[in-house]
Specification:
about 260 residues; alpha/beta; Rossmann fold; seven-stranded parallel sheet; oxidoreductase activity, acting on CH-OH group of donors
């Protein structure tokens, strides 16, 4: 057994990793520091400069990485992401997939949510991860790793995040089921609590932070992207070879059951 967290020789795709302050970027940087070749994924031309910053930071530190613009809710986008990864790293394998891309709708579910917002939320939370798993698993060698990034919103019951939590809950159930069906591949859910990123407007993040801090049991602080990235690294490493089909909260002790 290998007593290490090294990812030397591994190839990883991390979706939604093009924002410097996000969980995806923190995970990409950590994987690269531990030896993996990493594909950074971002969605739009508007976010390209930020993705380039993430890429440059990794490369300047001696890491191996590429950045690929692709809409991972579409078959075409997923195929592009997978093929550019294989071609750029001159490989026929993808060892690790982290489904981290997210879209947050915040607001009263019954009064204001539109059909378009429902479709967009579930496309990102459910359809995209399924498409990516279908596309990457054929390239995964024995002991591949899949991490689906969820949220404690899937269990906590936030009124303003009911749609977002519903999408994440659906993927939680799929991950649990696939944990029993996977062949020589582990698949787990990582569910962050309140993490200080810029995924929402500053005033919303501040309000949510005030609400969540009293529920945090470990320390009197909010979570940081690195707190989540460290757990993801552990789960994709050899040390987590006997862990699959699990929901792992990374919330400082905040629970919603």
């Amino acid at each position: 057994m290998v007593d290490t967290l090294s990812l030397e020789g591994k190839v990883a795709i991390i979706t939604g990793s093009g924002r410097e302050t996000g969980i995806g970027a923190a995970t990409a940087a950590l994987f690269a520091r531990n030896g993996a070749a990493v594909t950074i994924n971002y969605l739009s031309e508007k976010s390209a400069p930020r993705a380039e910053n993430v890429l440059k930071t990794i490369q300047d530190a001696g890491g191996k990485a590429i950045a690929v613009r692709a809409d991972v809710t579409t078959p075409e986008g997923v195929e592009k992401l997978v093929q550019e990864t294989l071609k750029s790293f001159n490989t026929d394998k993808i060892d690790i997939l982290v489904n981290n891309a997210g879209a947050v709708y915040g607001g009263p579910l019954l009064m204001k949510v539109t059909p378009e917002e429902i479709d967009a939320t579930f496309a990102t939370a459910v359809r995209g991860p399924i498409l990516l798993m279908q596309a990457t698993v054929p390239h995964m060698p024995r002991y591949g790793r899949i991490i689906n990034v969820s949220s404690i919103a899937s269990k906590f019951g936030f009124d303003g995040l009911a749609l977002y939590g519903g999408g994440k809950a659906a993927m939680d159930a799929i991950t649990f089921a696939l944990g029993k069906a996977g062949k020589n591949i582990t698949i787990n859910t990582v569910a962050p609590g309140y993490i200080e990123t810029d995924i929402l407007a500053p005033e919303i993040m501040e309000e949510n932070g005030k609400r969540m801090l009293p529920h945090t049991r470990v320390e009197e602080r909010h979570g940081q992207p690195d707190d989540v990235a460290d757990v993801i690294l552990l789960l994709v490493s050899e040390k987590s070879r006997w862990v699959t089909g699990q929901y792992i909260g990374v919330s400082g002790g905040v629970t919603g059951n």
